[in-house]
Write a structure and sequence with these properties.
Elements: H1 4-39, E1 44-50, E2 54-74, E3 80-85, E4 92-93, E5 98-102, H2 105-138, H3 145-178, E6 180-182, E7 187-189, E8 199-200, E9 209-224, H4 225-237, E10 248-252, E11 263-268, E12 278-285, E13 297-313, E14 317-319, E15 325-330, E16 336-341, E17 345-347, E18 350-353, E19 362-366, E20 377-381, E21 383-384, E22 390-392
Parallel strand pairs: 1-20
Antiparallel strand pairs: 1-19, 2-9, 2-13, 3-5, 3-8, 4-7, 5-6, 7-9, 9-12, 10-11, 10-13, 11-12, 13-18, 14-15, 15-16, 15-19, 17-18, 21-22
């Protein structure tokens, strides 16, 4: 009876072991089948473009802000009461157009008073002149030298009074003219800060309105001093062709649209900011439709020169942990290989490279994210748009349908 207690567990253990061996045998067969199926899968199709060396533009993308071509804060130059506001706020005005009219009653009275003072001063000159002429004739025949000198001083004083009165008259005329505030140049007005009936004072702190000329318009760009040094080194080495001072500049608006006018470099600041390590570049653009407004944030693409090399679309490349540009190519036996590029230049929506690449190389531009190095692929020639997207891939030949087995 004691032996029977150990027989049943022994039988169960042997049975479980047999089932486990059978299961492992079946699992191994399944894995082997999957491996065989994987080996029979066709290579993945990838879109490729053929590399060709050519002279390509070297560009910089810089942030910037639009600035009015001309700007003036309009202030009064005399005291008085605003009687007229002759412009529509936010409208275009021409040089010399009347903007504000200040009450001129007191200035007309001052002008009349200045005219009267001039007339009085001029009336005293003839008698003083005649008296001087008489004493000049008599100075050696009865008239004393003192009388002659007094006559001469009286004449000079009368002439000085006339000059003073003329200056006062001119000042009165100028002040009267200042009661009409006119546009100093063609531009667009802002909101008026005063209304009819307000009292204004000469050269007050608050501007009456602001006038801006925005056609053409300036765009102030910011670039790093490191880029400036790199650009100068490339020019000195002869790698970069063209004159950066005559560079074409194109704008991208805040909504991502391309501005249809090309700008030119106007000036570059000959100093680097001590806090940011950047320097300022000013470009000028035609703005006939007033699309660009002062203060607008913009991105500018500046063509600084041309260099021979190969273009790798930005969407077909990545950066490794060290920040080095990497891209995948179709190598020997149609297997994937990665390449790195230490020195790169920006060229529009692509990277311009000059090393570790040659004519005829096949760059993978689509599907490279999921393919490891050494994997076999089936390259298919593709066409890219200006943004680096695949827009056309020739259709692959249709596969033949296997004949049905009898």
């Amino acid at each position: 009876m004691k032996k029977s207690r150990y027989v049943l567990p022994l039988v169960l253990t042997l049975a479980i072991a047999g089932c486990s061996e059978q299961s492992n045998s079946q699992g191994g067969g399944t894995a082997a089948g999957e491996q065989a199926g994987a080996q029979q899968r066709p290579p993945a199709k990838v879109s490729v473009i053929t590399m060709k060396q050519a002279e390509q533009p070297v560009t910089r993308v810089l942030p910037g802000r639009a600035v009015a071509y001309q700007k003036a804060e309009i202030r009064p130059r005399v005291n008085g009461l605003i009687e007229q506001i002759t412009f529509k706020e936010g409208s275009e005005v021409k040089v010399g157009d009347l903007l504000y009219k200040i009450g001129d009653d007191t200035y007309n009275a001052a002008l009349a008073e200045a005219k009267a003072a001039l007339a009085k001063a001029e009336a005293s000159v003839p008698s003083a002149q005649a008296n001087f002429d008489r004493y000049q004739r008599l100075v050696n025949s009865g008239a004393t030298q003192i009388e002659y000198e007094n006559a001469r001083v009286t004449l000079l004083q009368a002439q000085a009074d006339v000059a003073q009165a003329k200056a006062a008259l001119q000042s009165a005329e100028i002040n009267l003219g200042y009661t009409e505030i006119r546009a100093p140049f063609d531009g667009i007005t802002s909101i008026s800060n005063v209304s009819i009936g307000n009292i204004v004072t000469a050269n007050q702190t608050t501007a009456l309105t602001t006038l801006r000329k925005i056609d053409p318009i300036y765009v102030d760009l910011t670039d790093s001093s490191a880029n400036l040094l790199e650009l100068r080194s490339a020019i000195a080495a002869g790698r970069l062709k063209g004159n950066p001072t005559q560079a074409d500049i194109r704008l991208t608006l805040e909504d991502g649209m391309k501005y249809n006018k090309t700008g030119k470099l106007d000036m570059a600041e000959m100093a680097v900011s001590e806090t940011t390590g950047t320097y300022q570049i000013r470009a000028v653009f035609d703005n006939p439709e007033n699309i660009i407004l002062p203060g607008t944030y913009l991105r500018a693409t500046v063509t600084v020169g041309y260099e021979n090399g190969f273009l790798i679309p930005q969407r077909a490349a990545t950066r490794n942990a060290n920040g080095t540009l990497t891209a995948k190519f179709v190598g020997a036996e149609n297997k994937v290989q990665s390449r790195t590029f230490e020195h790169t230049q920006l060229s529009g929506n692509s990277w311009l490279v000059t090393e570790n690449i040659k004519d005829g190389d096949k760059l993978i531009v689509d599907g490279f994210q999921w393919i490891a190095d050494g994997a076999p692929v089936a390259p298919v020639d593709a066409t890219l748009d200006e943004n680096g997207f695949v827009v056309e891939t020739p259709a692959a030949a249709p596969q033949e349908t296997p004949a049905a087995k009898p």
